[in-house]
């Protein structure tokens, strides 16, 4: 089913509005959840930015948070006061934008039928974990929006190998990495896989000059930020100092979230300090680590909804348990449909989307397989799932009937 450019824009704005409406309803009917340790760190850093204009140094080694999300919070706090409801509303707006971008990516690049692309976008706006994280002071929603925005020029660059797309996508991926450090290696993974895919499929090998522009466009914003931190506050490492701690924490196989009383202490102190370091007795054997990481390959796809946050809603509304079962079953069906697109690996845009998915899958299999870390690939999984549906004969017949009736 075709649609005009004006119709695409109207649909895009409609999905954004739909996300905002979902947000208003959720905020009105559902209770908010308590802050987590990460949320306290973001909140304190944003408040410190407003008060001093400087990034908060969390630890003695000068470690700071990635600046993207604290700056987003600081803008909201400056305009609306220290109001979490305002934060949640704007994050629901971002969820709407994520849904609209999912629609656009599926419709524009994978040529999904209009209704299937629209359904994929609408699903993102009501996806349980998207809704949950829109109600938390965490960077996930803001980061996913940046990633999906970056996907537009990135897919153009990967299929056309043009300099303007290389530069634009490099800058956007830098903004994503400045929000979620997990993106620090993504551009280099993309370049390697682009070249490898070109050789395997005997396609045009990407220009090394455009690849250099892509890498430079990514690295320059990171260097500018680090230079600013050093010039203004004398901080050398910035949020790169988190990397050793993240690796160490990933080896602590018994790591648990901080208890509620710990959160209260952090809020009262208006500061944040690291979780207690791993002792020698806690360090697992190499065999334990290897087995754990192999399990993470599967655990990455854990649909979640089994933590204390879900339990709070179940305790208040018992019927939520049924909804959680339906959500888990539905996710597994969609995931199976998405994996069926592997047979279309010679279709470049399908392969390029899998390049992004494989990056997050691999990184978090090595580090942590928490359900929220799978969230950035959910819109891409939905696009691929509906791509599979669109190639099923029954769906093609239905699409043709709708086209004959309405077009």
Overall description:
This protein is mainly alpha-helical and about 400 residues long. The chain has one domain. Helix content is about 70%, strand content about 0%. The protein is built from 19 helices and no strands. The protein has helices at about 5-30, 35-50, 70-80, 85-110, 115-125, 130-135, 140-160, 165-175, 185-200, 210-235, 240-250, 260-270, 285-300, 310-315, 320-340, 350-365, 370-375, 380-390, 395-405. Helix 2 (about 35-50) packs across helix 3 (about 70-80), helix 4 (about 85-110) runs antiparallel to helix 6 and helix 9 (about 185-200) packs across helix 16. The longest helix is centred in the N-terminal third of the chain and has 26 residues, at about 85-110.
Question: Which terms would index this structure?
Answer:
mainly alpha, globular, single chain, 407 residues
Can you give me a brief rundown of this structure?
With about 400 residues, this protein is an all-alpha fold. The protein is built from 19 helices and no strands.
Topology:
Blueprint: H1 5-29, H2 37-52, H3 68-80, H4 84-109, H5 114-126, H6 128-134, H7 140-160, H8 163-177, H9 186-201, H10 208-233, H11 242-251, H12 260-269, H13 286-299, H14 308-316, H15 320-339, H16 348-366, H17 371-374, H18 378-390, H19 393-406
Helix pairs in contact: 1-4, 1-5, 2-3, 2-12, 4-5, 4-6, 4-7, 4-18, 5-18, 7-8, 8-10, 9-16, 13-16, 15-18
């Amino acid at each position: 089913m075709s649609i005009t450019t004006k119709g695409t824009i109207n649909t895009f704005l409609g999905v954004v509005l739909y996300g905002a409406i979902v947000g208003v309803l959720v905020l009105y009917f559902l209770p908010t959840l308590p802050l987590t340790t990460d949320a306290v760190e973001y909140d304190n850093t944003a408040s410190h930015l407003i008060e001093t204009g400087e990034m908060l140094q969390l630890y003695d080694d000068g470690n700071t948070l990635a600046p993207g999300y604290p700056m987003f919070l600081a803008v909201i706090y400056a305009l609306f006061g220290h109001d979490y409801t305002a934060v949640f509303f704007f994050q629901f707006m971002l969820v709407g934008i994520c849904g609209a971008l999912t629609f656009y990516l599926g419709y524009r690049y994978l040529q999904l039928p209009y209704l299937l692309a629209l359904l994929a976008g609408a699903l993102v706006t009501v996806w349980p974990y998207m809704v949950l994280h829109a109600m938390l002071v965490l960077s996930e929603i803001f980061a996913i929006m940046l990633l999906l925005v970056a996907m537009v020029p990135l897919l153009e660059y990967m299929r056309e190998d043009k300099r303007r797309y290389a530069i634009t996508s490099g800058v956007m991926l830098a903004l994503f990495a400045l929000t979620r450090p997990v993106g620090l290696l993504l551009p280099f993974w993309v370049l390697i896989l682009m070249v490898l895919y070109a050789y395997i499929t005997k396609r045009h090998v990407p220009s090394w000059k455009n690849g250099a522009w892509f890498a430079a466009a990514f690295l320059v914003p990171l260097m500018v930020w680090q230079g600013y931190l050093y010039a203004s506050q004398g901080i050398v490492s910035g949020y790169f100092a988190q990397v050793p701690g993240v690796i160490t924490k990933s080896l602590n196989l018994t790591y648990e979230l901080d208890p509620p009383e710990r959160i209260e202490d952090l809020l009262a102190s208006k500061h944040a300090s690291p979780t207690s370091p791993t002792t020698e007795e806690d360090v697992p054997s190499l065999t334990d680590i290897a087995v754990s990481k192999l399990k993470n390959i599967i655990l990455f796809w854990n649909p979640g909804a089994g933590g204390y946050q879900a339990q709070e809603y179940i305790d208040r509304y018992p019927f939520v348990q049924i909804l959680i079962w339906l959500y888990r079953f539905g996710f597994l069906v969609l995931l199976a449909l998405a994996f069926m697109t592997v047979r279309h690996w010679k279709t470049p845009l399908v392969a390029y989307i899998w390049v992004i998915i494989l990056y997050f899958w691999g990184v978090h299999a090595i580090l942590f397989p928490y359900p929220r870390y799978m969230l950035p690939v959910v819109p891409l999984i939905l696009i691929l799932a509906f791509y599979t549906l669109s190639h099923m004969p029954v769906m093609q017949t239905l699409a043709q009937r709708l086209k004959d009736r309405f077009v």
